[in-house]
UniProtKB/TrEMBL annotation:
It is found in: Cell membrane. The chain crosses the membrane at residues 44-67, 94-117, 145-165, 177-196, 216-239. It is a multi-pass membrane protein. Keywords: Cell membrane, Membrane, Transmembrane, Transmembrane helix, Transport. This is Aquaporin Z. Its main location: membrane. The keyword GTP-binding does not apply. Belongs to the MIP/aquaporin (TC 1.A.8) family. Pfam families: MIP. The lineage of its organism: Bacteria, Bacillati, Actinomycetota, Actinomycetes, Micrococcales. PROSITE patterns: MIP. The keyword Transport applies.
Length: 249
């Protein structure tokens, strides 16, 4: 393979799986193990919502710098679909990317579950009882927000995330700064929406944690698959007509 050739598909899929693995391990791991420490009542050294938001943003920054040159650094089915809708990514490659992202996410949450099982007596059960960083609405929203708020939040914030990604990676954008802009935008999104839905904007992340959260998470999972994808597609289809006059293809 020449230096200018695109990486082979197996390398791209491996990078997507690894990047999503790191995203779930770092972001959801912070939520499970470090958000409230030693516990929710006496959270003396826990990182709280701010720490969780930063953890998700930092995993994207790290993943984008390390793996972006290989796969583009999507790590999120909604991002992959949004990029395809914008014309920046081939529709024929969407399926493989999504499968790789789901596998990476599930591996990440499975490692977290294994770590929790090795904790003090009852640690895994307590983590499961508290939601295992899964996304939810109604009684499973951190602050009790309902279905309508969850739908609006996930759709709008995923669309915002895609607009940032598309703008930061446009040919007229400043090269080298895209991972920082994207990671900081994901941090901001989490700061807004952790109290509402525990923040998805990523179906692979939601599926990964639902596996270990219990039956309620499976019942609500559809919201965190459908509406992040809807937001990504809306942004992808809207981006080019909105900004075609200033974009250099």
């Amino acid at each position: 393979m020449s230096e200018t050739a695109s990486p082979a598909m197996y390398a791209r899929l491996g990078a997507e799986a690894l990047g999503t693995f790191v995203l779930v391990l770092g972001g959801c791991g912070t939520a499970v193990f470090a958000a409230n420490f030693p516990d929710a009542e006496t959270n003396t050294v826990g990182v709280g919502f701010l720490g969780v938001a930063l953890a998700f943003g930092l995993t994207v920054v790290v993943g984008a710098f390390a793996l972006g040159p290989i796969s583009g650094g999507h790590f999120n089915p909604a991002v992959t679909l949004g990029l395809a809708a914008s014309g920046r990514f081939s529709w024929s490659d969407v399926g493989g990317y999504v499968v790789a992202q789901v596998i990476g996410g599930v591996l990440g949450s499975s490692v977290l579950a294994l770590i929790a099982l090795g904790g003090p007596d009852g640690y895994f059960d307590a983590a499961r009882e508290s939601g295992f960083a899964a996304n939810g609405f109604g009684e499973h929203s951190p602050d009790g927000f309902g279905l309508g708020s969850a739908i609006l939040t996930e759709t709008v914030l995923t669309a915002v995330f895609l607009f940032v990604i598309l703008g930061a990676t446009a040919r007229i954008a400043s090269p080298g700064f895209a991972p920082l802009a994207i990671g900081l935008s994901l941090t901001l999104i989490h700061l807004v929406s952790i109290p509402i839905t525990n923040t998805s904007v990523n179906p692979a992340r939601s599926l990964a944690t639902a596996i270990y959260a219990g039956g309620w998470a499976w019942g609500q999972l559809w919201v965190f698959i459908v509406f992040p994808i809807l937001g990504g597609l809306l942004a992808g289809f809207a981006y080019r007509p909105m900004f075609s006059r200033v974009l250099t293809e």
